[in-house]
User: What shape does this take?
Amino acid sequence: IEIDHKLCKTTENKLVNHDNFQVLNKDILQFKFPKNQSYKIFGNIPYNISTDIIRKVVFESIADESYLIVEYGFAKRLLNTKRSLALLLMAEVDISILSMVPREYFHPKPKVNSSLIRLNRKKSRISYKDKQKYNYFVMK
Assistant: This one.
């Protein structure tokens, strides 16, 4: 999912020989994830809306796995059990930092390093009602 039309076309052209990959020219924050098919999510997400995108991916998609490049400090915060976002996410997904991505790998070069993270969906072990109670408790 890429909001920039030009970048979307460039990516589509580079992946023209891959039939198991789809690039969508959409705003991810407005996107409705499919509920009737299996898929994975891959992305290099904008640092300034990382929290919104992570919430959307975890709570609105049914992707079993998501691989995202995020700002390194944000990745560490996702693993910090003293933070409410981390606690909410950890009820739904296992979060792993797979590797560091040095800032020199990007153009233009950001001021911070990045990380490749994996969100691996957990099998739900609690009822929807109990999940609502948990979310309420965490956010209080």
